[in-house]
Amino acid sequence: MPVRPVAEAVDHALRSLPGGPAAQPVRDGLLQAREALGAPLCVAVVGQLSSGKSTLVNALIGKNLLATGTTSVTPAVWVLRPADTPSVTVHFTDGRPPLACAPAELRRFTARGVDGSVKSTAVDHVEIRGPYPYLRTFDVMDTPGIGSGHDADAARHIRRADAVIAVLNTAVAQRDAELLIRFRGRQKESVSLTPLTAIGVLTKVELLWPGEIGAECDDALALGRDHARRILADPVTKWLFHDVVPVCSKVAAGTVALTDAAFADLRALSAVPESRLRVHLDDLRTFATQPCDGLPLPPARRAVLVALLSPYGLFRSARFIREGVGTVEELRRVLDEAHGMATLRHTLSEHFGRRSDLIKTSRIVDWAHGCGHRLTGADPRVRTRVTDALRPITALGEYDPAFAELRLLRQWYERELDISDEDGAELARAAGERGTSAARRLGADDTATLRCLEEAALDRVAHWRRLQAVGGPDRRHVALVLERRYTRLHDQVRRARILLGETDG
Amino acid sequence: MNGDREPDGGRREAVLVVDLGTTTTSAMVLAPDGSCHLLRHENGWDAQTWMPTAVFLAEDDSGSADGFLVGWPAFERRADDPARYRAEFKPDIGNDVPVPFGPKSFPVRVLVASVLRHLREAADVCKPTPRRLLVTVPAVPGPARRETMIAAGLEAGFEDVELLAEPLAAAHAPVVGGPWPVGTIVLVYDFGGGSFDTALVRIGEDEHQLLDQDGLPTRHGGRDVDAALRQDLTPAADRYLAADPARGGLRDRLERRVSDATTRLKHRLSAREHASVDITLGIDPQRSSRRRLREISDPIVAGTVDCCRALVERRGIAPAELGGVLLTGGSTRLPGVAAHLREAFGVEPRTTEDPVLAVVRGAARWALRIPAHATTGVAPSVVDVPLKWSFPQEEAVLVRWLVAPRDAFPAGAVLARVRLADGSLHDLRAPDAGRIVRLHAIDGERVYGDDWLVTVTKTVLPGEEASYNIVPWATRAAPVARDRGAGPAGSEHLHAPREGGSRPV
Ligand SMILES: Nc1ncnc2c1ncn2[C@@H]1O[C@H](COP(=O)(O)OP(=O)(O)OP(=O)(O)O)[C@@H](O)[C@H]1O
Ligand SMILES: Nc1nc2c(ncn2[C@@H]2O[C@H](COP(=O)(O)OP(=O)(O)O)[C@@H](O)[C@H]2O)c(=O)[nH]1
Ligand SMILES: [Mg+2]
Ligand SMILES: [Mg+2]
Questions:
Q1: Which end of chain A is more exposed for a tag (fewer CB within 10 A), N or C?
Q2: Sign of the Cα pseudo-torsion (B378, B382, B387, B388, in order)
Q3: Which Pfam families does UniProt cross-reference here (chain A) (predicted)?
């Protein structure tokens, strides 16, 4: 369910609510709901210490804000929020009012933890606001590494998040995933590490380049995808993530720090034929320390580039420049695209954004249903006016299968639903896990004609209608919900066809 | 106009009373002489007291006005083309997404209307033909559900459509062992085919009162018991299909037979310790026991009892206060239902003659009192008088009342302030001193010149003189204060509160 009609229903309710004190609690509730709907998605990044969380966060927001590679002793949680003017606020756990500090002091916090003036154990989180290039539609939260003695702390914060990025270090991805499962097991209370809200991100995939001997590959991301597939196919770990995506976050974060001078150096290196460059990069030590025949630049400057971008990033950058990329900005953009960061951001704000809207909406609808009870005793005219005002909200959930689907999905991911894998996959698809267009929900490809979609919807209606009287109890329940979903899709497609003049209904 | 249905002088009109259940529908005709007649439904074998809630869209000219076969004829033909058959549509009443039937789609309202029309035609044997419909609805239908029900009734050709909550109807049904004592609080336990509903009802002299209700719309109906029991029968059917590849084409028909056999087996086991059922030739009769059925239905029954317990607790009713439990709905015949309730509430549940017909029979009894459902208007008395005002313009919006119900006010006090169409404000003054009995419009409501806006009583009791919350400018000596332009809050009036004009006249 998209958030707009919900927000409109809330606005409408606010406008048509009667004045006076009797309706005040309802008004307050609606204003709160409005605020919750407008609040940005909160994405938490979790993973083991040094799995690359901070690096990934930097790459996500497009600025090297958080210190990386430090084994901070502070279980500090950083919350990054989009804002026009930069500000830093420290929030405490002991009820002290939040403390503003100068952005310039940030490094001190990030690198060494909160020092003497602020008692470190009482810090709940540090909120950093600023105009970061890519941070627009969500907040990001960098959490202390799990398995490092701060699990309870991490769990407390993760519970507040709408979506979770689980960072998996490619070299030890399987072990990381198992650690997450144990973590989820220990931190029982709804640490949402299920496909409902969690996505796995493989980091350090550029280290896979140039592939195995005899199976060289210049696309590290493709090598990463193979890894991801294995994780998703694993009978245990596949119940953790919505998807597992590889990213070259180090490369993306590195390009953020790229200067014009460094870009000029890269341009010089791109003059070296690719095959030669590949050979040189294979012997990194020499590349970064020795003067070499046919390689431009002093070794120290080469070393800087490698440290910043990694050998793979340098190699790819040189290729992009050879293909015509002419400025730092352009390079940043193409690397961001090529290294999976743009897609990851999109998935976060689209897929998980919609998911969190649905969760918020279901809360609002439940609340609106309960409002009648709270008004007993008020003037009957006021009561009716309030119920009428809330009606667009209460009507939202009444026949929309989205809420029932969400509950079923949760049960399915928690393995509490006795249906086949095939039925489960269809449930997930119809519920919009692979995209919410009619075509995606129907499992058709995006080029399918409306006519095909209509037929497909009808076919699924018939299928699940039959199963209501054939399957076991869980399957029957899923069938009732999915019949409603496909009936709705059928209606949507049919109306689209009427609109386009393909049929006259 | 037909003299028989003149709704005056307590003369009775003929009423068609309908219980439209998820799985079964039953109907009675209440004749003007007060006699009741249960409609029978031919199933090709004998005349049943109920019919399946089902429709089948016949492509040929099958004699029905709208192309739908209803009830048993629909049920018989469901195998012809499952896509044209629809049962269990009750939960979707109020949903505006049309239901596909093969190539066509129909709003659920149309399906309900054809069921009601079918019943109206069946009631034609009774003279005079009922033109008033009383249809029962679940206790918590959303407004959309109620409106659709009424619209469907009108569409089916009835002149008046009336709704009655199912549990309230059931509470009026004749109970085995004699009527409930007046004042008893009865828990109505309605365990139907598609859902479970429960309500607390206080037994009255002639009519009972619905105190509160709750329900489980999914996973707790007779059909869910069927789905669970079916699991016991499917292995035999699967073996039969697997034994010969040529039987693959029989799957659909066999599945339907298994379904029907399951329901039959369930019904048999509600009366016997052991029973068997035939699925089809070629499969041995399947045996099962009451104990097995109870094993299957127990978790579902336990869920329904929990729901009842929660309702009783929510209403703060002590176990001793609960005077009885009434079983209605076909699924209360399941083994263990009475035992669970006895254990939970310490009272022996009571039954009606036929639990499937309890709702319709009770509703018919309730309908006997329809002539009493009228009141006669009351003209203003000497002390209670309505007030009206004329405004300079035809209509206005009531901005706010300056008095609350029970407030006493002096002559000339401003009771309300309205906004005229041109945006200006206009005050409504009291002609005499008095006390507010009731406001007939609320803040924000549109009002018209010469509407009666408030009822006041002319007598002011001793000690109530000061209850009017005097706004400083509101007590200006009344009749001369026509000069609206002079504005409120002239400082000379600020001293005028309380003592001012609040003396009773
Ligand atoms: N003897 C029996 N033993 C067990 N179950 C029975 C028996 N007779 C009828 N039922 C079941 O009762 C159900 C029908 O009951 P009923 O007519 O009260 O439901 P409904 O009014 O159609 O549904 P709802 O109240 O949920 O809308 C069916 O599931 C049927 O299988
Ligand atoms: N090669 C490579 N190194 C990375 C990558 N991400 C992080 N690192 C390195 O791993 C170390 C730990 O990274 P950091 O982001 O601080 O991890 P955190 O402890 O999980 O926040 C640092 O030295 C990073 O430079 C990556 O994608 N590729
Ligand atoms: Mg870190
Ligand atoms: Mg019923």
A1: C
A2: positive
A3: Dynamin_N (PF00350)
Residue with tokens 């008033």: B132
Q: What is the ipTM of this complex?
A: 0.85
Record: contact A476-B227, CB cut-off 8 A:
yes
| 8 A C-beta contact, residue B223 and residue A476 | yes
| pLDDT tens, per residue, chain A with 505 residues | 677 888 999 999 999 998 778 888 899 999 999 998 888 889 999 988 888 999 999 999 988 888 787 655 455 788 999 998 888 888 888 888 888 887 677 666 554 444 444 445 677 888 989 888 888 888 999 988 887 777 777 888 888 888 899 999 888 888 888 888 888 777 665 556 888 889 999 999 999 988 887 778 888 999 999 999 998 888 878 888 999 999 999 898 898 889 999 999 999 999 999 999 998 998 888 898 888 888 888 999 999 999 999 999 999 999 999 999 999 999 998 988 888 898 899 888 888 888 888 888 888 988 998 887 777 677 788 888 898 999 999 888 788 999 999 999 989 988 899 999 999 999 999 999 999 999 999 999 889 999 999 999 999 999 999 999 888 899 999 999 999 999 999 999 999 999 999 887 6
- B-chain CB neighbours of A394 within 8 Å are 142
Tokens of residue A162, six digits: 């709408």
Interface touch A494/B443, C-beta < 8 Å = no
Its CATH architecture, for the domain B222-293, is Alpha-Beta Complex (3.90)
From CA B83, how far away is CA A202, in angstroms rounded?
47
Binary contact (B97, A466; C-beta < 8 A): no
Q: Indicate the class that CATH gives domain B3-165.
A: alpha beta
Under an 8 Å CB criterion, which residues of A touch B?
18-20, 379, 381-382, 385, 391, 394-395, 398-399, 404, 458, 461-462, 465-466, 468-473, 475-477, 480, 484, 487-488, 490-491, 494
The residue contributing the CA closest to ligand 1 atom 25 is: B192
From the options 2.40.50.100, 3.40.640.10, 3.50.50.60, 2.60.40.420, give the CATH code of B373-464.
Answer: 2.40.50.100
What angle, rounded to 10 degrees, do the helices at A353-374 and A3-16 form?
Answer: 30
Tokens of B398: 């009531």
